[in-house]
Amino acid sequence: MQRFVQFGLSIAAVAALLALVPLITGAHEGREVAEGRYDFTVGFIEEPAFVGEMNGLTLRVEAIDGDATEPVIGLDQTLEAEVIFGDQTMALELSPAFQDDGVYESVFFPMAVGDYTFRIFGEIDGTAIDESFTSAPDGFDSVQDRAPLEFPKPS
User: Fold this and answer.
1) Burial of 2 (0-12, 13-18, 19+ CB in 10 A)
2) Cβ distance 80 to 129 under 8 Å?
3) What is the per-residue pLDDT across 87-135, written as a single tens digit (0 to 9) for each?
4) Domains of the chain (ranges plus CATH)?
5) Residue 48's closest CA among 112, 143, 147?
């Protein structure tokens, strides 16, 4: 009998974990820009992204040369970024990531559940850039409510 109880509890635990999988998977969106000269990878710094938690934009830029890529540095001087949610827009200051050439970050606190858009614009070596990346199932995560993962629950 005890074996059946343990088996039942194991099945319940696996089912609970599988129910949380959509909440804990994440990705970034990659795209070639400027007629295939650069590869941009965009997403939240931490994915999944949760309401009220410190997070922000992460942007990786690599120059494409045939089959090889090379990180592009110094873009905090020539590119700008903004985050858009609904009808609200906030400018983001890009900063180079520590010890990760070609990666730029900007921290903010997402305060609503839903889809966010990151707009990256400016220039790279004289080439105009204006790209928007919106959270989607095949891109980076939407911001989620953290309540299902909070423990202990408030009483």
Assistant:
1) exposed
2) no
3) 999 999 999 999 999 999 999 999 999 999 999 999 999 999 999 999 9
4) 27-145 (2.60.40.10)
5) 143
